[in-house]
């Protein structure tokens, strides 16, 4: 009988030292501030939202990817036109597994299409505004959409094409809402800047355009849920079962009308704090809608979030119904968990995923008895790691000033506080926190390694030194990790799996991780450079 070799365990401090050893002194000093060990006495501050050091192979995306690919990509009835080379439009269209479900075959669904002006050399030299106008006219003639969104890429910013002027011209000519985003890829530190730009423009040009109020006693918006692998479908199912009306999602399985009527909801719930907290803040200021942080990743987290929503509305009928739904859903979850737990207990994981996913998915691993050795964000800010209480201490640098900060004031006609100050204070006293996010680090085990903006070298080194049972990140890291003999779960777009949100999603995730950590295929394989470590070549002289 084969005896499994025990893993040599290095201390977190020793791992950090090894990671920094390869860098030149100046680079090492900067990276040292971006690698934090939880539970350290000296300081809890981590450096985040700073530009990647040139020459390092980062795992980040660009500002354009965050704006078009993440925020607007999941909306089915807005024609999203990329003004730029075809590669940008194709990348932002292809690499996400946003799903949508049109009510009928006649309802608009533009997600299967990639719209681009396909800029060529002559457009860079002579300007591409006329080509953009023609693209808008062509798209309108073909599809007759309710709205169009135009996205600027790097070349557009460099040559000075005015996408906003074109949008205004097309809005007047076509009689539909046309708006643009100055989301050139280089404009910010990462895709986080694109989220902010997208939030600003959607809030300015769409939210509040339609005052139609949906029927329902308990109306909420779900912000920061992008329906990867069908997550939003499961969340919608649970909310509907509880009797909660979802006015809009930002922006999984979303529509233009959802954005336009979002201001009629009574509560905003925030899933991905980083990508959407801007909208939550602005909607509270302008329309009086409070927001709370929730998490539908993990069965216990889902139950907790439903209870928070019910507590906010304070209706015993809703509170009782939520408990009934939890009682109905949890037995199936527990049955699957009981099945997988003996195989997953004691296993280890690493998570380096954008937004709040590197935090949320630790809930699921905890439920399976697994420990997160290391985690981090591609585009997090300090408040995503440490909590919103650090926001006043965050210094505004030149990159942050690139992004417009909207001056929002209460809407004279529509501002209506959903709860009085006294009611909010009472709910706070009962434990329901508003405008609050405690961040990822406080919930992690002492001695865990938190790394902002992980790069390819560090990922390989972490796997080599700590030998996790599973590594979770994005498509760019997938194959290099697998070649090191470790199963890799893609949590940006779930590979071909999902949904992983809610109760049914938890069951799917339990089974998937159990399958991956018990498979021996990865530990039994060797990378090409391990099987043939010597390079050979033949020189032919003419």
From TrEMBL:
Molecular function via GO: ATP binding; iron-sulfur cluster binding; metal ion binding; nitrogenase activity
Gene3D superfamilies per the UniProt record, alphabetical: Nitrogenase MoFe cofactor biosynthesis protein NifE, C-terminal, Nitrogenase molybdenum iron protein domain
Superkingdom to which the source organism belongs: Bacteria
Keyword annotations: ATP-binding, Iron, Iron-sulfur, Metal-binding, Molybdenum, Nitrogen fixation, Nucleotide-binding, Oxidoreductase
Keyword flag Nucleotide-binding: yes
Catalytic activity annotation: N2 + 8 reduced [2Fe-2S]-[ferredoxin] + 16 ATP + 16 H2O = H2 + 8 oxidized [2Fe-2S]-[ferredoxin] + 2 NH4(+) + 16 ADP + 16 phosphate + 6 H(+)
Function summary: This molybdenum-iron protein is part of the nitrogenase complex that catalyzes the key enzymatic reactions in nitrogen fixation.
Family per record: Belongs to the NifD/NifK/NifE/NifN family.
The protein, known as: Nitrogenase protein alpha chain
Lineage of the species this protein comes from: Bacteria, Pseudomonadati, Thermodesulfobacteriota, Desulfovibrionia, Desulfovibrionales
Gene name tied to this protein: nifD
């Amino acid at each position: 009988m084969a005896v499994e070799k025990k893993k040599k365990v290095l201390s977190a401090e020793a791992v950090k030292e090894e990671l920094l050893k390869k860098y030149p002194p100046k680079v090492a000093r900067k990276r040292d501030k971006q690698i934090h060990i939880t539970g350290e006495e000296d300081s809890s501050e981590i450096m985040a939202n700073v530009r990647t050091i040139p020459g390092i192979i980062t795992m980040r995306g660009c500002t354009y990817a965050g704006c078009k690919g993440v925020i607007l990509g999941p909306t089915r009835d807005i024609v999203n036109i990329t003004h730029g080379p075809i590669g940008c439009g194709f990348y932002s269209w292809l690499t996400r597994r946003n799903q949508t479900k049109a009510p009928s075959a006649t309802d608009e669904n533009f997600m299967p299409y990639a719209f681009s002006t396909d800029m060529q050399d002559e457009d860079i030299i002579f300007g591409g505004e006329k080509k953009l106008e023609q693209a808008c006219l062509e798209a309108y003639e073909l599809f007759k959409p309710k709205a169009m969104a135009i996205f600027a890429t790097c070349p557009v910013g460099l040559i000075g094409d005015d996408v906003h002027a074109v949008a205004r011209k097309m809005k007047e000519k076509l009689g539909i809402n046309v708006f643009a985003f100055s989301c050139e890829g280089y404009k910010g530190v990462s895709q986080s800047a694109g989220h902010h730009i997208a939030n600003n423009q959607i809030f300015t040009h769409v939210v509040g355009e339609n005052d139609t109020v949906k029927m329902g006693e308990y109306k909420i918006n779900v912000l920061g849920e992008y329906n990867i692998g069908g997550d939003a479908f499961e969340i919608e199912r649970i909310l509907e079962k509880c009797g909660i009306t979802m006015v809009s999602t930002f922006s999984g399985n979303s529509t233009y009308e959802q954005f336009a009527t979002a201001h009629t909801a009574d509560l905003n719930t925030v899933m991905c704090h980083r990508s959407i907290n801007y909208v939550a803040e602005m909607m509270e200021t302008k329309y009086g809608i409070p927001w709370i942080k929730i998490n539908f990743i993990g069965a216990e987290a889902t139950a907790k979030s439903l209870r928070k929503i019910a507590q906010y509305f304070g209706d015993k009928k809703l509170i009782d119904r939520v408990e009934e739904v939890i009682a109905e859903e949890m037995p199936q979850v527990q049955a699957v968990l009981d099945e997988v737990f003996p195989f997953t207990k004691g296993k280890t994981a690493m998570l380096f995923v954008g937004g709040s996913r590197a935090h949320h998915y630790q809930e699921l691993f905890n439920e399976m008895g697994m420990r997160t050795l290391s985690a981090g964000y591609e585009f997090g800010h300090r408040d995503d790691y440490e909590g919103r209480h650090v926001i006043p201490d965050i210094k505004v640098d030149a990159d942050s000033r690139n992004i417009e900060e909207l001056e929002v004031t209460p809407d004279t006609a529509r501002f209506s506080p959903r709860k009085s100050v006294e009611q909010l204070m009472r709910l706070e006293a009962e434990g329901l926190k508003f405008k609050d996010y405690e961040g990822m680090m406080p919930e992690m085990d002492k001695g865990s390694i938190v790394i902002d903006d992980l790069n390819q070298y560090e990922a390989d080194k972490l796997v080599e030194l700590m030998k996790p049972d599973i590594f979770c990140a994005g498509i760019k890291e997938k194959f290099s990790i697998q070649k090191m003999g470790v199963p890799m779960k893609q949590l940006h777009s779930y590979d071909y799996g999902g949904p992983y949100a809610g109760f049914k999603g938890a069951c799917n995730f339990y089974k998937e991780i159990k399958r991956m950590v018990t498979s021996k295929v990865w530990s039994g394989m060797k990378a090409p450079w391990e099987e043939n470590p010597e390079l050979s070549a033949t020189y032919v002289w003419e």
